[in-house]
């Protein structure tokens, strides 16, 4: 099987090839059981599209407007060494001699499913037995997920941190069709080189052709194609002749994989502390928003279990600057805003919420974006600001409870629970309001957001009031605090 030629992509119409998706008029829907795998598949396919088409901005625009023809795809294939995309080769660097090989169930490659032994390793989403075997086709997306999305800490001492840092948030442009989504997230080489500082001698060979050497992997020496599929492990998947269903895509298979083997690379990328401290630098990973601080660049991660993506939406789209740090949108956003923006697109934010070696939650949110991002992004930031304002008001209105003289932890617990409820409910409200981002003016959107979020804040507040109506001191404090939510903006 070759990833650039053969049908290995699971869709609601069966397995199809990358060529079929890019060149046909049909809109295929990916079909994977877990949204995490679905997200990794979008990343991997957009990166494969990049390395096969090698588009410039002008070409990308043309493909978006007129589609990719079979001849164009075939021509592109003829210009590259497709052997690196054979399924025995792709992202699989052979084990070094005499290395100590660790193995584990493939379950660990769907990081929404915990099967570690740490105290807070929870079966959050599903039972680990539910994901114990995969077909050969799906091993590639599992392997990609391991290298790009899963935190090395999930594997203890045998874990490695990949080029973008483990557990970081992914933001993609979501087009109207799968084909459009892949093209919108393909990387134009001319624009990429404008945005990053690679050495003229940067290595472009894939890491399974030429593994990196040395203790520090310098970002400026890693070419675009090499970095898009940068490795952190030597891996192998053991095939067994045994018929069954694939737990990743649901297809029947004659051979299954249950175990994968790994040996970690020994050098450090700039995504790790060691790499940062030794000047490795941040490799501009195109799907990753990042925070720039005095001591270096960090991939944006979601750490708090109660984190909701809306709170950070503005910084993912337009960036954010504070005294200590600057948040910058992912490269694909810059590319879209500066070069490709046309028609309608959405933004997809996904990733895991990790706490050291454990996964405590998951994010997979789709937002509407204004047709013209550069002109209309104020509309988005205003809606988000209203959400943050209401959150702040709700917080203030609860603060009166601390004056009652009760145990601080007790009162703090009441407040925290209520705040979490607000943040979580606001997620849906904001996604809903942003559906109108193209149809309504900024002032109207702001007003709609204020009305909906204020009544949500009041509802959350009232439910706490009701719960403590028989606790006179608390109830009185809440009555005193209530006015904050009723004050005019
Ligand atoms: Zn499968």
From TrEMBL:
Xref: InterPro entries: CRISPR-assoc_prot_Cse1
Pfam families found in the cross-reference section: CRISPR_Cse1
NCBIfam families xrefs: casA_cse1
Q: What is this protein called?
A: Type I-E CRISPR-associated protein Cse1/CasA
Native species of this protein? Answer: Shewanella psychromarinicola
Query: What is this protein's gene name?
Result: casA
């Amino acid at each position: 099987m070759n990833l650039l030629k053969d049908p290995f992509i699971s869709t609601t119409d069966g397995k199809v090839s990358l060529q079929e998706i890019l060149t046909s008029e049909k809109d295929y829907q990916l079909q994977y059981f877990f949204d995490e795998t679905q997200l990794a598949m979008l990343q991997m396919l957009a990166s494969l599209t990049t390395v096969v088409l090698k588009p410039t901005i002008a070409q990308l625009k043309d493909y978006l407007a007129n589609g990719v023809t079979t001849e164009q795809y075939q021509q592109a294939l003829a210009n590259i060494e497709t052997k690196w995309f054979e399924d025995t080769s792709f992202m699989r660097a052979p084990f070094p001699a005499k290395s100590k090989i660790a193995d584990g169930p493939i379950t660990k490659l769907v990081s929404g499913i915990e099967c570690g032994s740490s105290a807070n390793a929870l079966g959050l989403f599903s039972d680990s037995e539910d994901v114990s075997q995969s077909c050969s086709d799906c091993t590639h997306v599992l392997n990609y997920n391991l290298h790009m999305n899963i935190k090395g800490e999930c594997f203890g001492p045998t874990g490695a941190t990949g080029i973008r840092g483990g557990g970081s948030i992914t933001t993609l442009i979501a087009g109207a069709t799968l084909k459009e989504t892949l093209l919108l997230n393909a990387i134009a080489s001319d624009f990429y080189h404008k945005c990053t500082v690679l050495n003229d001698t940067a290595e472009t060979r894939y890491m399974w052709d030429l593994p990196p050497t040395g203790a520090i992997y310098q970002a400026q020496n890693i070419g675009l194609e090499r970095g898009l599929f940068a490795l952190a492990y030597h891996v192998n998947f053991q095939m067994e002749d045994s018929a069954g269903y694939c737990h990743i895509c649901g297809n029947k298979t004659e051979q299954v994989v249950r175990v994968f083997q790994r040996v970690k690379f020994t050098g450090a990328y700039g995504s790790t502390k060691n790499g940062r401290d030794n000047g490795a630098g941040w490799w501009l990973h195109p799907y990753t928003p990042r925070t720039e601080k005095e001591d270096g660049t960090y991939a944006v991660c979601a750490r708090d279990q109660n984190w909701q993506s809306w709170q950070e939406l503005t910084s993912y789209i337009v960036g954010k600057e504070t005294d200590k740090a600057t948040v910058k949108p992912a490269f694909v956003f810059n590319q879209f805003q500066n070069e490709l923006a046309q028609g309608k697109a959405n933004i997809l934010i996904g990733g895991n919420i990790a706490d050291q070696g454990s996964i405590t939650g998951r994010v997979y949110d789709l937002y509407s974006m204004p047709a013209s991002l550069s002109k209309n992004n104020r509309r988005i930031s205003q809606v988000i600001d209203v959400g943050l304002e209401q959150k702040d008001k709700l917080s203030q209105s609860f603060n009166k409870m601390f004056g009652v003289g009760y145990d601080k932890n007790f009162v703090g617990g009441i407040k925290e629970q209520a705040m979490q409820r607000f943040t979580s409910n606001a997620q849906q409200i904001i996604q809903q309001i942003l559906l109108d981002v193209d149809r309504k003016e900024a002032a109207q959107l702001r007003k709609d957001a204020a009305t909906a979020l204020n009544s949500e804040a009041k509802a959350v507040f009232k439910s706490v009031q009701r719960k403590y109506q028989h606790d006179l001191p608390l109830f009185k404090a809440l009555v005193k605090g209530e006015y904050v939510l009723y004050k005019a903006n």
